[in-house]
Amino acid sequence: MIRVHELATQTQSLASKSSSHADKIRQVAVISRSSNKMRSPLVLAALAMVVVLTAAVVFLAWQWPFTREAVLQDLEEASMSKVDIGAFHGTYFPRPGCVLDHVTFQHNPRAGSPPLITIERLRIESGFSGLFTKHLRYSRRGSSYSGTSSRFRGALSNV
Q1: Are 106 and 116 in contact (CB under 8 A)?
Q2: From CA 91, how far away is CA 46, in angstroms rounded?
Q3: Rg (Cα) of the chain, in Å, rounded?
Q4: Tens digits of residue pLDDT in 111-121
Q5: Where are the beta strands (DSSP E) in the chain?
Q6: For residues 91 and 131, what is the distance between their CA atoms, to the nearest angstrom?
Q7: Residue 103 in contact with residue 119, Cβ under 8 Å?
Q8: In angstroms, rounded to a whole number, what is the distance separating the alpha carbons of residues 97 and 127?
Q9: What distance in Å separates the CA atoms of residue 138 and residue 115, rounded to the nearest whole number?
Q10: How far is CA 71 from CA 76, 90, 144, in A?
Q11: Helices and strands, counts by H and E, the chain
């Protein structure tokens, strides 16, 4: 009879342990479901950011303003001159832009006439936000001017 009582006690303690174990499993399952619900908006936000960044990269690759041809065309239109570039180097980080070496502005189309402006090195750069707003910065090193127009001297001093 004592043995039956001991077995009954052991069975009850095992049953209570297994029910507490089952409760713990249920709690973990509830926590897991609630954390999955919280992860869903985070995953969607991360995917949205990836889509936006990919679209920005594709747009900039398609409309990159710092190609040799685009910069040459912009300089010729702005100066109303024939522009020659010795060397062109694109830059991407930390600021997107380009570096032009041995830039000459030839305003007089006659052969043998001296260039209007020569610039040893011209750096054109922008911030990444400036790529969308068309805001650029220019810096020059080693420039010279030949001619009589003060209009071009003023333009050269602002570059």
Answers
A1: yes
A2: 29
A3: 36
A4: 888 888 899 99
A5: 82-91, 97-106, 117-125, 137-145
A6: 13
A7: yes
A8: 9
A9: 20
A10: 9, 11, 20
A11: 4, 4
pTM of the predicted model as reported, rounded to 2 decimal places: 0.56
Residues of the chain scoring pLDDT < 50? 7, 148-156, 158-159
Q: Alpha carbon of 27 to those of 14, 15, 18, 126: distances in Å?
A: 20, 18, 14, 55
Q: CA 65 → CA 53, 72, 95, 102, 140, distances in Å?
A: 18, 11, 13, 20, 19
pLDDT at 150 (0 to 100):
46
- The dihedral sign for the CA sequence 131, 137, 139, 145: positive
SS (HEC) of 95-119: CCEEEEEEEEEECCCCCCCCCCEEE
Residue labelled with tokens 């029910």: 19
Nearest residue to 93 via CA among 63, 66, 132: 66
Strand order in the sheet with 97-106: 82-91, 97-106, 117-125, 137-145
**CB atoms inside a 10 Å sphere around CB 81:** 19
